[in-house]
Amino acid sequence: MNALTFSMKHRLDQRVDMSPLVCNELEGLTHTEIAAIELQNGKSKIRVDEVFRIKGSDAQNIVIEGSFGKLDFIGKKLDGGSISINGDVGAYLGQEMKAGSIKVNGSTGIYAACEMKNGYLEIKGNAGDFLAAALPGNKQGMKGGTVLVKGNAGERAGDHMRRGTLLIEGNVGDYCGSRMVAGTIAVMGKTGRYLGYAMRRGTLLLWNKPELSATFNDCGAHTLAFLPILFSSFNKLNSKFAKDSASFNRVQRYGGDMSEMGRGEVLVKI
Q: What is the domain partition of the chain in residue ranges?
């Protein structure tokens, strides 16, 4: 079977809620039934066939062609299958994703992978603010799975992160890992200000020396046995993290944030 493909007919002026178009919701539906699904478009609703040309039948493999930055909530609560996106996407990509994979050949808006529970999300471009974070008012962000960003990420990446792995090949903005509860964030590029602000536990892996606050203690240089095991899990990824793992074996360790529980750590490659 060919992948179920949605090709944009034209770009809309208002934002579109794409949350109904996920594998677990479309399985078993005919083209006619899919075409009749209504999507929220600003204050009004619009049928799928008014926005997209539909072809293919494999609902476990969805492709979105011609995507742009006003398509929000793609892959929300995805529970298996795969979504491939050619173009940029809007906000809340993969929100509360439970299983499966999402790959974006472009950049994303704010709150990508927010409160993600499991699965794999790959962004070939840049990610906006609050990547893998918690929704406003909530206390737990990403809870599991793996997110790979091949470009840069904005501010508050991993805010309130609870579990899982966030890999960023480029730079990241201010407050990376802020209020982090647990999990792993790795950044190959440069980091902004207030790194690990109020983090309780968790690990930040860095390739470049950060600007740390006085509430982080320098714990000296270490060779940590868990690092080769961690990096071996990256070998299956098409990423710089798979290629650079052998050189990341000696680190300078900083413990903090001491204004909180102080059980978090920042590991900087030596």
A: 107-269
